[in-house]
Design goal:
With 538 residues, the chain is of the alpha/beta class. It is built from 18 helices and 21 strands. α12 (308-321) links the parallel β10 (290-298) and β11 (323-331). It binds glutamine. Glutamine is lined by residues 353-355, 381-382, 405, 460-463.
Length: 538
């Protein structure tokens, strides 16, 4: 079997949804039961995303194997409903460190190691190796950044070179602007972007045009003429009500048929069940009847992508419940300054993951407000740790309860770094990363949600609930309903008086449109119930 390659390049602007287009292509291939895998290249010199700040880079995504990867992997998994692994993520840092290792080992003995041919050949070999190992029929390679960036230029050259040896299709994602002043679409920037692509010796097979509105006829004509491609290869990728609609929108334009012809797979037929299932989920998101107001209280709320998995997990749950989550992004520091007033009309509150002390007092106040007013609460990782601290302070009367992360010298550290963790750690320094099992107790929100005893969720954290405080908290009414199989680590805690659950894991990282997170489903359902009850009281 000869693997085919589809290379997705960004032109003109970053952050316009190249990841959604790549994911949609993967989903379309999956609907045709074609074995396709993604590879993402990122130009930065970090070996992985572990140390990146969400303020600058958006969310750090974690895979089952503990790899800390670019958030686009989250998008691929949410569309594909498949577990990906660390080998599919290539960064400049990873590539260069492997090349240098080879050089030190003497693999290039006698040669000066150069970008051409050594680096270029190394990349092509690597990609072919990944494809072979997984028996991929198609590899969809997303190149991070935009064409013209210095840092991805050698990678693009490798893709051009690959295209001379393998069946390769280039998909260029660009943006068509519509300035208010003109009121019509302008293609000049997109044309200049295409010129840059062509200057690399690459001829696009498709130009996917992101835009606010449907593409105008003259836009299609200009892009087709400038890109030297037929009009049917200029693809409309306007803003849609939900990103999950994009594969259907592309199929409606006949993109699937053309693409399959390009990769010599036109004999393959669409799997009607898969297609229908996806469209009915998309329809259900679009037709959700009733709103619930969900507040997400964090410190990175001004960055749209910092909590993208949390937001998407709510969308997935909504597709099954027919409830529309209206998300309120609440800056935890503003709660510290201005109080909890902004929380009072919410039907559910989430405190997501995070690092460092900044903003945590505002999160603790929000948790307290939610507990005292019986507003459904979901705590994710840091949100679980703070739930324990809030309970210790307010119910157990340990007023200075805190976490070792915020104050290493404190007397009452409810959350601590457990040195025993050192021995079972996977890659990544001192963090507990990747998939871990937990055992769930009966008569709990967790059991009610997961409906099974053993669960597996992804983790990314350093600190744990201090076992010295387990009994004190439990006696005061905080239920411990999930623990590690050896009972050494607390995984899930719950309030006993109202719906409140905190998990040390990140269930949002495993939530997909076709397999929503059980906890998010339960939480959203509860938020809706809370809204109805509240309405009834009034
Ligand atoms: N900062 C906390 C820890 O390291 C929580 C991490 C998180 O929320 N991902 O344990």
């Amino acid at each position: 079997m000869q693997t085919k390659y589809i290379v997705v390049l960004g032109s003109l602007l970053s952050g316009i949804g190249k990841g959604v287009i790549t994911s949609s292509i993967l989903k379309i291939l999956d609907m045709y039961n074609i074995r396709a895998i993604p590879i993402k290249f990122d130009g930065y010199l970090n070996v992985d995303c572990g140390t990146m700040n969400p303020f600058r880079h958006g969310e750090v995504f974690v895979l089952d194997d503990g790899a800390e990867v670019d958030m686009d992997f989250g998008m691929y998994e949410r569309f594909l409903n498949k577990d990906l692994d660390r080998d599919l993520s290539l960064t400049s840092g990873k590539i260069f460190s492997e090349i240098i290792e080879k050089e030190r080992r003497g693999d290039y003995l006698g040669y000066d190691v150069q970008v051409v041919p050594h680096l270029i050949e190394f990349i092509k070999d690597k990609i072919r190796g990944i494809a072979k190992k997984r028996e991929a029929e198609v590899v969809v390679i997303e190149v991070g950044g935009t064409v013209g960036d210095l840092e991805n230029s050698y990678f693009i050259e490798a893709m051009r070179s690959l295209s001379t040896e393998e069946d390769t299709v280039f998909v260029v994602v660009t943006y068509v602007l519509k300035p208010h002043a003109t009121g019509e679409q302008k293609t000049k920037p997109a044309q200049l972007g295409l010129r840059a692509v062509m200057s690399y010796g690459i001829k696009p097979s498709y130009v996917v045009c992101r835009s606010e509105d449907p593409l105008e006829g003259s836009t299609i004509e200009k892009i087709s003429s400038f890109g030297s491609i037929s009009k049917e290869r200029v693809i409309d990728a306007r803003d849609l009500e939900t990103i999950y609609e994009m594969p259907l929108h592309l199929i409606n334009q006949g993109f699937d048929k053309l693409l399959l012809k390009d990769i010599c797979m036109e004999d393959r037929a669409i799997d009607k069940d898969k297609y229908n299932r996806w469209s009915s989920l998309v329809n259900s998101i679009k037709s959700s009847r009733d709103n619930v107001k969900i507040g997400i209280v964090g410190k990175y709320v001004t960055v749209k992508d910092a909590y993208i998995s949390v937001k998407e997990a709510l969308v997935h749950a909504s597709a099954y419940l027919n409830i529309k989550p209206e998300i309120y992004w609440i800056d935890s520091e503003s709660i510290e300054r201005e109080g909890v007033e902004v929380l009072k009309d919410l039907h559910g509150i989430i405190v997501p993951g995070g690092f460092g002390a900044r903003g945590t007092e505002g999160m603790i106040k929000s948790i307290e407000f939610s507990r005292l007013n019986k507003i459904p609460y979901l705590g994710l990782c840091l949100g679980m740790q703070l739930m324990c601290i809030e309970y210790a302070r307010d119910v157990c009367n340990i007023k200075d309860a805190t976490s070792e992360e915020f104050n290493p010298g404190a007397e009452h550290k409810i959350i601590v770094y457990l040195p025993t963790q050192r021995s079972i750690q996977k890659l990544g320094g001192t963090m507990r990363l990747g998939l871990y099992e937990a055992v769930i107790k009966d008569n709990s929100i967790a059991k009610d949600a997961y409906k099974r005893e053993i669960i597996r969720e992804r983790h990314r954290h350093r600190y744990e609930l201090n076992n010295d405080y387990r009994e004190i908290l439990e006696k005061a009414g905080l239920k411990i309903t999930g623990v590690s199989p050896d009972n050494k680590l607390v995984e899930i805690v719950e309030w006993s008086q109202s719906f409140g659950i905190g998990t040390q894991a990140h269930p949002e990282l495993r939530s997909r449109l076709e397999k929503p997170s059980e906890l998010f489903l339960r939480f959203l359902e509860e938020a809706y119930r809370y809204k109805q009850d509240k309405g009834a009281v009034r």
